[in-house]
Amino acid sequence: MRTLYQYAAQFHQPTVDHASLLVEHGAEVRLVTEVFMRLIVFDGEVALIELADNPKGGLVVRDPHVLHFLVRAFEGAWAKALPFPLAYERDQVLRSSEEIKTAIVKLLSLGYDDKVVAKRLGISLRTFQRHLADIMRRIGARNRLHAGYLLRDLEIFHEKAVEQQKR
């Protein structure tokens, strides 16, 4: 069994406890920065996905072509995911924080507003704002327009993130 959780799940103790239990029984658990739809695939033959208009509902999928697509989407997300920290290690927390900041920059550069970015990342608007303030401080931006100009190339942000981690 392989499970993907959103970034914020690592700070929710009941989820950490559940992930620990899964790992004890042989499962693998990782974190993604962006929302990944709820998906359960059974033996590659049937999947259950959440309904777009009702997160408490589900759709059973048996079509092999759709299953193939869903599994490939999961595998892509899995490959980019970080290990789920069952115990807090400084380096893991810093790496997770940098991943979320990079995702914020990416989503803002795609034109999403603050509330949408926070929701897609599974964090509160207040947490989003704290990360954004740190991003702006790190790159020396005086306002959001200035930040957009400075971040015109995401490599600038990555370079500053690497510098920050070295300190």
Automatic annotation (TrEMBL):
InterPro entries: Sig_transdc_resp-reg_C-effctor, Tscrpt_reg_LuxR_C, WH-like_DNA-bd_sf
Domain of life, per lineage: Bacteria
Name the UniProt record assigns to this protein: Helix-turn-helix transcriptional regulator
Annotated ranges, domain HTH luxR-type: 102-151
SMART domains assigned: HTH_LUXR
